[in-house]
Amino acid sequence: MKRADRLYALIEILKDGRLHRAEDLADRMQVSMRTIYRDMDTLAVSGIPVEGERGQGYSARAAITLPPLNLTETELEALHIGLAAVGGGMEGDLRDAAESLSAKIDAVLPEDSLDAPKSFGFAVYPFADAAQGFRHLTPVRTAIRSRQKLRLNMMDDRTCDVRPLKMDYWGRVWTCIVWNESDDAFETLRVDQIDSIAILPGLFVDEPGKRLQDFSKENS
């Protein structure tokens, strides 16, 4: 498993809010406890609200969702792509400036009882991986707004028909909560793992058991 994939898998485990022992996480990820300790340090530095310590266990205070703030989604997308491109592809003054801008954005992100502190521009995932998802941000976002069903061809050779419900931001990695009609279940998909998207005919309407609020109830 790639390190980026392992870090994302750890986020998925920790966001249930429960305490997870490093030993159990190491067994689950099939790595050493020393690797888990390093991963936890990396997640914490990247803005993931990891709590705990060696010998005790780890948890995350809350799921990470970047709210709209005072920016439009298009503006947020532009900032994300620009900072990731400069941070991943430049050196010297430009990279320093991108990092400084990222820190300034972090400093003004609001915090409330529902949303934990976030980190915007620089995180644990390499630019090359994040770039895979950039081209899909606009069509996925548009489909959420218009309630458009999508057919997703994933990098792991899966094909699934979905109802896209919500996009979340995890420090360079965007995820989308969907109702997967192929599996008849909710699923959280990484946008950078989508290979291609096809728009399906017809729009979807809210149905009990398939709505975002139903997903929230299942995961509360």
Explain the overall architecture.
The protein has helices at residues 3-14, 22-29, 33-45, 73-89, 93-108, 127-146, 212-218, and strands spanning 50-53, 57-60, 148-154, 159-169, 174-180, 185-190, 194-203. The protein is of the alpha+beta class and 220 residues long. Among the domains are: 3-60, Winged helix-like DNA-binding domain superfamily/Winged helix DNA-binding domain (Arc Repressor Mutant, subunit A, Orthogonal Bundle); 127-218, SH3 type barrels (Roll), CATH 2.30.30. The strands form two sheets. It has a five-stranded antiparallel beta sheet with strand order 6-5-4-3-7. The model is unreliable at 63-68 and 109-127 (pLDDT under 50).
Could you write a compact summary of the structure shown?
The protein is α+β, with helices and mostly antiparallel strands and 220 residues long. The protein is built from seven helices and seven strands.
Q: Going across the major beta sheet, what is the strand order?
A: 6-5-4-3-7
> What is the approximate shape?
globular
Largest sheet: 5 strands, antiparallel
**Termini, distance in Å?**
29 Å
Helix amount, in percent?
A: 40-55%
Structural class: alpha+beta
Radius of gyration: 18 Å
- Tell me the β content: 15-25%
Order of helices and strands: HHHEEHHHEEEEEH
Summed up, the helix count is: 7
Low-confidence stretches: 63-68, 109-127
Average pLDDT figure: 78
